[in-house]
Amino acid sequence: LRIQPEQNMAGEYGNGWKGVWNWCETTGKEIDRIMNGIVPQIDIVVIQMDGDVSRKEKEIHCVCESVSCDHREEEISPVRCSYAKKGECPVIIPCQSHANTPEGYREHISRCILQWTGISSERKEIILTVPCDSTDAWIMAAFELGEEMESIENPWENVISRKKEYHGIRIPGHKKSTRVYQNLIPELERQWKQVVNLCESAKIFERSVKEAWND
């Protein structure tokens, strides 16, 4: 069962990281009721957010200790912060509250997701996965060998879509599309062991799934 964050009535949030944030703050707080109330029962929930959100997006650092903001008490959620929308967010990135590395991004985002959903600690049946710099790093690791795959920023723009083709797969207009990913994913499935060896986030994800499934 795939649960995709939906846009609200105003057309806001939706599929991006703010959609995940909004889902966690609303639906996610009912996660136990959702998992137990659907037939057949949901055994595992995977919440995924790309690591580049921590690297690039100011709002996700709103509650970081190093950030000084006079408006925290005025806003219900940084996602809906009117000051951020006006370009008046005081956050400076890179944030000083955590390491600006793939490991730091994973730790930061995982901590945020737990906070948004109201979960006090990590649970086996709720898997948090933070690919760095994004899930495109997993795609890249399926097609080629290299070190520090997760340290490459913007792997789609800087590697996968730099040319018209990527390992024989056409990338029309250098743009992401469902069709392009449908052509890339089979190699990801075939080379999953290689992806796990090259990407720490994939290794963590695989281990978490196995632990939850075998529990």
Keywords, separated by commas or semicolons:
two-stranded parallel ribbon, mainly alpha, two-stranded antiparallel sheet
Summarize the helices and strands and which ones pair or pack.
Blueprint: H1 17-25, H2 31-37, E1 45-48, H3 52-56, H4 82-85, H5 102-117, E2 126-129, H6 136-143, H7 155-160, E3 165-166, E4 169-170, H8 178-190, H9 192-198, H10 200-214
Report on this model:
The protein is mainly α and 215 residues long. It has a domain at 134-198. The chain contains ten helices and four strands; from the N terminus they run H-H-E-H-H-H-E-H-H-E-E-H-H-H. It has helices spanning 17-25, 31-37, 52-56, 82-85, 102-117, 136-143, 155-160, 178-190, 192-198, 200-214, and strands spanning 45-48, 126-129, 165-166, 169-170. The protein has a two-stranded parallel ribbon. Strand 3 and strand 4 (169-170) form a beta hairpin. Helix 6 (136-143) packs across helix 8 (178-190) and helix 9 (192-198) crosses helix 10. Residues 5-11 have low confidence and may be disordered.
pLDDT averaged over residues: 87
Give the overall shape, derived from the CA principal axes: globular
Give the radius of gyration: 18 Å
Number of helices: 10
Please give the order of strands in the largest beta sheet: 1-2
Low-pLDDT regions: 5-11
Distance between the ends: 20 Å
Portion in strands: 5-15%
The structure class reads mainly alpha
Helix content: 40-55%
Order of helices and strands: HHEHHHEHHEEHHH
What is the makeup of the main sheet? 2 strands, parallel
